[in-house]
Amino acid sequence: MPFCLWTLNVIRTMLNKHHGIALSKSAVSRILKQLGLSPQKPIYRSYKQDPKELEKYLGITFPALNFSTQAQSETIRR
């Protein structure tokens, strides 16, 4: 398969398509647990991410946006 994220539904579909085995999501989850496998949270991070640009954004741009938002919020409250 051309991707790395295996969900219970993907495993169910593959078992049904290739082996004719129809299982519920809970059954697949139970079997995976018995095999010692646990669900993993996928990492949502771009492989193209530039660490220098991210540092600049987190250090300069984001705090300025946050300050601007707080200032606007104060203006609205008055």
- Shape annotation: elongated
Structural classification: mainly alpha
Report the C-alpha radius of gyration, rounded: 23 Å
Q: Tell me what portion of residues adopts beta-strand conformation.
A: under 5%
- Please state the average pLDDT score: 79
String of helices and strands: HHH
What does the main sheet amount to? Answer: none
What is the helix tally?
Answer: 3
Number of domains: 2
Let me know the number of strands: 0
Low-pLDDT stretches are none
Helicity level, as a percent range?
Answer: 55-70%
Explain what this protein looks like in three dimensions:
It is a single chain. This protein has about 80 residues and is an all-alpha fold. It has helices at about 10-20, 25-35, 50-75. It has two domains: about 1-40, no CATH class; about 50-78. The chain has three helices and no strands. The N and C termini lie far apart (about 55 Å). The model has no long low-confidence stretch (mean pLDDT about 80).
